[in-house]
């Protein structure tokens, strides 16, 4: 029994342990979180393989079931569910203050690879409640539909419809919101949707009310190059390894998993893929990234690749899905921007490159970079997934909003 126990302990330690950079905050807690994610994901993929259910449906069910075990107080904020132009939203309203007429507001779009989580989970419920209280702002959290129920561009359409509905003068008046003090924000895949929505709103000539700010938290912004320095540096980093991010993209586009390896080595944007040529200059990380991020990494540019990938998944080059590929004329129209990035994150360079392109287009940008943090950390502030990195990034994000909104 003792031998079996020792063997089990050794196997558990082997499964949990990952070599992490010395700068990572609370490494052992992160290893445990990642090991839990991997175990759950492997179970869900087994269920998918047995054709009992789609792995993302099972994974989301488990996330929501675990989430129900948590209790987050919201006595100080009025929380209501509503429907904006057919899209479910959750609205967080702080109590009215004496002599106060109008409040500022944030439209928030949650992350989760376009497939997981919800505006109603405690992680996002807690974040939006704290935002509403700290900023004395009305926070609208968008409950867009998820993969595999729907795929691109439906998530984008949901986020856009809900936002445009909220921006109507009569709806803003209903919630006592100042039309000149509205931000659009989101994290990870929600940051992708927030950036895409902002770009689309900037092109709408009939829109009378526009967002004052956009705030993007470790956003995923491109599927053109899966070998940027941050993708190479953090390819096995919790909680978002490179292969997992590629699979999220494939699921989002309802694509074929057989393309995963070709995407990983950039076969879809090889030099002989004509559809990609016009976009290459917009994502040249050798010129967009500072040397501290480029380090000694080299670009991975295939001479010959697979043009059929773009033919079968044209959304890989659709700016509604990959906002980093937008033309300069659209970037010039974007509002004042905040972008939060983490060193230990495959998506770090997406945010840094977008900040640089916006800055080159004349947009005022704040790039808030954290050397000791990892992808997804900002929502991990509730026990047992509470990280100091989560508190640190959340406070910095809210502070910027408070000073600029």
UniProtKB/TrEMBL annotation:
Its EC number is 3.1.1.71. Transmembrane segments: none annotated. Residues 106-263, 318-378 form the Alpha/beta hydrolase fold-3 domain. It is an enzyme of class 3 (hydrolase). One of its GO terms (cellular component) is plasma membrane. GO terms for molecular function: acetylalkylglycerol acetylhydrolase activity. InterPro entries: AB_hydrolase_3, AB_hydrolase_fold, Arylacetamide_deacetylase, GDXG_lipolytic_enzyme, Lipase_GDXG_put_SER_AS. It is found in: Cell membrane; Microsome. It catalyses: a cholesterol ester + H2O = cholesterol + a fatty acid + H(+); cholesteryl (9Z-octadecenoate) + H2O = cholesterol + (9Z)-octadecenoate + H(+); a 1-O-alkyl-2-acetyl-sn-glycerol + H2O = a 1-O-alkyl-sn-glycerol + acetate + H(+); 1-O-hexadecyl-2-acetyl-sn-glycerol + H2O = 1-O-hexadecyl-sn-glycerol + acetate + H(+). This is Neutral cholesterol ester hydrolase 1. The lineage of its organism: Eukaryota, Metazoa, Chordata, Craniata, Vertebrata.
């Amino acid at each position: 029994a003792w031998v079996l126990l020792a063997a089990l302990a050794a196997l558990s330690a082997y499964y949990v342990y990952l070599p992490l950079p010395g700068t990572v905050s609370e490494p052992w807690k992160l290893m445990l979180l990642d090991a839990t994610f991997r175990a759950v994901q492997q179970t869900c993929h087994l269920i998918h393989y047995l054709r009992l259910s789609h792995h993302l449906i099972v994974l989301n069910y488990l996330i929501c079931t675990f989430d129900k075990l948590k209790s987050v107080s919201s006595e100080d904020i009025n929380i209501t569910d509503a429907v904006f132009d057919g899209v479910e939203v959750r609205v967080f309203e702080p109590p009215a203050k004496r002599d106060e007429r109008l409040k500022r507001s944030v439209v928030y779009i949650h992350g989760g690879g376009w497939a997981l989580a919800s505006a109603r989970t405690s992680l996002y419920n807690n974040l939006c409640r704290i935002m509403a209280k700290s900023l004395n702002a009305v926070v609208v959290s968008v409950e867009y539909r998820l993969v595999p129920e729907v795929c691109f561009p439906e998530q984008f359409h949901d986020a856009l419809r809900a936002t445009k509905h909220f921006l109507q003068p009569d709806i803003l008046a209903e919630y006592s919101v100042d039309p000149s003090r509205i931000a659009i924000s989101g994290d990870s895949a929600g940051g992708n949707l927030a950036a895409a929505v902002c770009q689309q709103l900037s092109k709408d000539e009939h829109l009378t009310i526009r967002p004052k700010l956009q705030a993007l938290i470790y956003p995923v912004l491109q599927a053109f190059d899966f070998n940027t320095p941050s993708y190479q540096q953090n390819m096995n980093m919790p909680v978002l390894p490179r292969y997992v991010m590629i699979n999220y993209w494939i699921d989002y586009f309802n694509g074929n998993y057989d393309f995963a390896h070709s995407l990983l080595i950039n076969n879809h944007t090889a030099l002989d893929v004509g559809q990609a040529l016009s976009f290459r200059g917009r994502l040249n990380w050798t010129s967009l990234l500072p040397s501290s991020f480029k380090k000694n990494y080299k670009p991975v540019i295939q001479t010959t690749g697979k043009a059929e990938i773009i033919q079968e998944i044209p959304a890989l080059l659709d700016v509604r899905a990959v906002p980093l590929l937008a033309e300069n004329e659209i970037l010039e129209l974007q509002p004042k921007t905040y972008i939060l990035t983490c060193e230990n994150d495959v998506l770090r360079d997406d945010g840094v490159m977008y900040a640089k392109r916006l800055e080159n287009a004349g947009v005022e940008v704040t790039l808030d970079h954290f050397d000791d943090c990892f992808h997804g950390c900002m929502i991990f502030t509730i026990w047992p997934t509470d990280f100091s990195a989560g508190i640190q990034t959340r406070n910095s994000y809210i502070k910027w909003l408070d000073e600029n909104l």
